[in-house]
């Protein structure tokens, strides 16, 4: 039913058989949309939020057929009889305006004829009548013609996604997503040493149509691709802000990082960090002791004791300091050459 979006490679297509007519059912468009397969990440935005024009500021310039798309989201439907009545009223007003226009023209001509014999006073009266704004006919504004719902619905999805992005930044939106995150509705981190930490959907861009949604893990602070069924969900429908704002608001939901970092070994011997095939940049996953906890995941042979962990920290700090000194030397050489 839907066509591909013109703003990127996000496909807003749905299966026609899975759709339910909102006109013949008590289910609202928002509830129907969120109940579709692959849309489990979405939250239902309240009508009160969408009825407030302040919350929709600027969206009319981003979404084509904005008024029609908003009416579809809010389940505002125009019957064919209403459209015909509107057209009949428009034709009647047109005939009435033409009659009054002829009457005004005749009266103005009579006044002009009378003003010829009255001198300057008649011309001044005629001038006032011509300059009076109430006598000028304003052109009638015609409503946009009826648009096929199959054309409007992809833009309704885009509009709802942008409204959804703004709703998640509100107090109610953050609380709703925090409850869903705590219950593990969005899945768990695929990294072994995160210990099945819950993840939360987020996007890397705020502009629609650029990239699909990603899953953010607050334990390892990294992004992961969602299952295939969610690949067509636009990441802009969640935005780049709300997930991190949620953990700032509900700090008790922020998990403690795991102390264990995978160490590649050959015949039981750990590969040196300076080796070509050795582990690099492991210090990025390290946290201070007060923000870490012991992990019970993994094999006992793979876990590091405190002494080995301290040795690794010292080695990585030394490597980090060496890299900084090397970078400083390169900067000094470049400045001296200039």
Question: How would you sum up this structure in a few lines?
Answer:
One of its GO terms (cellular component) is cytoplasm. The protein has 338 residues and is mainly α.
How does this model look, in words?
With 338 residues, the chain is mostly helical. Among the domains are: 80-123, no CATH class; 167-256, N-terminal domain of TfIIb; 265-337, no CATH class. Helix content is 42%, strand content 5%. The strands form 3 sheets. A 3-stranded antiparallel β-sheet has the order 1-2-3, with no helix packed on it. A hairpin with a 2-residue loop joins β5 (265-266) and β6 (269-270). The longest helix has 39 residues, at 80-118. The two termini are 63 Å apart. Residues 1-7, 15-24, 92-101, 112-119 and 295-304 have low confidence and may be disordered.
Quickly list its features.
three-stranded antiparallel sheet; 9 helices; protein kinase regulator activity; mainly alpha; elongated; N-terminal domain of TfIIb; Casein_kin_II_reg-sub_N; 5% strand; 338 residues; 42% helix
In spatial order, strands of the major sheet run 1-2-3
CATH architecture of the domain at 167-256: Single Sheet
In helices, the fraction of residues equals 40-55%
Q: Can you summarize the main beta sheet? A: 3 strands, antiparallel
Shape: elongated
CATH class of the domain at 167-256: Mainly Beta
* Unreliable stretches: 1-7, 15-24, 92-101, 112-119, 295-304
Q: How many E-type strands?
A: 7
Radius of gyration (CA) equals 33 Å
End-to-end CA span: 63 Å
Query: Order of SSEs, N→C?
Result: HHHHHHHEEEHEEEEH
Q: In CATH terms, what is the fold-level topology of the domain at 167-256?
A: N-terminal domain of TfIIb
- Mean pLDDT value: 74
- The number of helical runs is 9
